[in-house]
User: Fold this.
Amino acid sequence: MSGFRQSVVRWFLTTKKTPPVTVVSGRNTADKLYTDILRKNCKAAFIITSKTVRNKGMLDKLTENLTANGIKSAFFSDIVPDPTIENVERGLSVYNENKCDCVIAVGGGSVLDCAKVIALRAANPHVSVKMMSLYVVPCKKSVPIFAVPTTSGTGSEITFFSVITDAKKHKKLPLLSDRYLPEKIVFDSALLENVPQKPTVYAGLDALTHCIEAFISTNAKTFAEDVVSAHEVCRDIFAYLPVVAKEPRNEEARLKMAEAAYKAGLNFRRTGVGFVHAIAHRLGETYHIPHGLACAAVLPHVLEKLLPEAQNRLKRLAVKSGTAKSAEAFIEKIRALERTLGIPENFSEINERDFPVMIRRILSEAATQGCPKRLDAKEIEAILKSLKAD
Ligand SMILES: [Fe+2]
Assistant:
């Protein structure tokens, strides 16, 4: 990230207001969104979701209720896992063709990211995605968004960032805006319980990483009000992630995990993350290791290297969450949780040949974050070596 862009991000995060968003949770709560849409005087909802959710008929009751209340609806589900500019532009065309005036986003991080940007483009038709990614073009507030996250991990429903890929240039464009936050966030257990075990576990450990990296960040003092719920996030993930892994239809555990991931999103949306994410991003782009799995595998290694600098903050989080009595014991608890959840410690695809490029990019990304200690190239190489299968 250029020095100029870094300064703009810093200015944005320290000056923007963070208005509260209404959050509701329960069974079949998404079906009742028509009441909020009527209240906003909207007439046509643009439902952005995955093909799976749509094809399984999981939103039939929602669309039935919309129609019964005089609200038209149009579906859009042409979204790839790392959504592209083309996905946004195609979505915007369908939105306009159907004369929609609000967005219902039902899905995981990719769907939510794409929906946020489509809603922002709909309100700002003359500002392209590329212009939005420059951070300097003022935008009007997006059309109303109603977010229904179906995975519990990214926190995209409440974060300021969205990532859209420029497929032609093979480049990810990070967007930063407070103009596409949802009107309402709905956690519907009937949708959450359909997520398979592995993505559930990976997403939960991604959320745990968000919360821990934010809490030990040097930015946590500046945004102290954002990290006040960190101990609740840790407590609930340790308690409920093993439950949802075994009992996918446990409603209480599903909703607790959804709320934990949302709160973790609040924790890190201004504070940022750190070396765990910087390393995990490289494992993702180089070997396509899923983001949450990469974060989980890297987390205990990085925390060990951050001692003693992060000792006090880690201990405070461990004690307040009731997880452990010391920073070292906390790291051991994380390892034990990950073993229970079947997270591998090594990856056969990791190859030393790739280390120089990866390390350069890790250092560059981490330089923009409030890491409690700057790991050097040797320390990062040691982590990568310990993740590599013999
Ligand atoms: Fe993450």
In short: The chain has two domains: 3-192, 197-387.
